[in-house]
């Protein structure tokens, strides 16, 4: 089986590749000659994941899957949510995004939040989605050098490390993207 993972994010590709069985040939956007920005204009995480998968299937003809992820913070009514990647502006800078989130949380007593990933699989002209959620809290400052995005300020429930302090194996085991990918792999195992 061959599938395109519709992302230009090298960190996402690394996380997902660690969970996809070797029998599935995973192609990147670069592998199929897609160098354009895939539209993400929906107002939900699920909507963006579906939009990206449909874009690849429609324009390139490949069976594929795409993900979209958002950090939803309770005290900020679910912000940054679907706008997580460009929270501080179109430059999509992780540091700017984290700094803005920490500033908005300065006066808040509760720092609960969750990461949500939705994977949309476009296979054999059928669309299937998988969702992974990881609950935790936003720290008051950055910890750790690993990970990407908001990882240095997100500490999952029942752990005293941020995602940026964890190794890839642990993050994939308990994290939102890992949970969604494991569901994807289980689904693919049943049909292949």
Looking at this protein, list some descriptive labels.
23% strand; 5 helices; Maf protein; alpha/beta
Q: From the alpha carbons, calculate the radius of gyration and give it in angstroms.
A: 16 Å
Please identify the structural class as seen in this structure: alpha/beta
- Strand fraction band? 15-25%
Question: Could you give the order of the helices and strands?
Answer: EHEHEHEEEHH
CATH topology: Maf protein
Q: State the share of residues found in helices, binned by percent.
A: 25-40%
User: Number of DSSP helices?
Assistant: 5
Major sheet description: 6 strands, mixed
CATH C-level class is Alpha Beta
Number of strands: 6
Strand order of the largest sheet: 2-1-3-4-5-6
CATH architecture: Alpha-Beta Complex
How much is the average pLDDT?
Answer: 95
| Poorly predicted tracts of residues | none
Shape: globular
- State the distance separating the first and last CA atoms: 8 Å
Number of domains: 1
Question: Would you kindly provide a written description of the structure presented here, covering whatever features stand out?
Answer:
The protein is an alpha/beta fold and 192 residues long. It has one domain: Alpha-Beta Complex (Maf protein), CATH 3.90.950.10. Helix content is 31%, strand content 23%. It has helices at residues 10-17, 45-60, 94-105, 168-174, 176-191; strands at 2-5, 25-27, 64-73, 112-123, 126-138, 154-156. The chain has a 6-stranded mixed sheet with strand order 2-1-3-4-5-6. Strand 1, helix 1 and strand 2 form a beta-alpha-beta unit. Helix 4 (168-174) packs across helix 5. It is globular and about 50 Å long. The termini are close together. The mean pLDDT is 95.
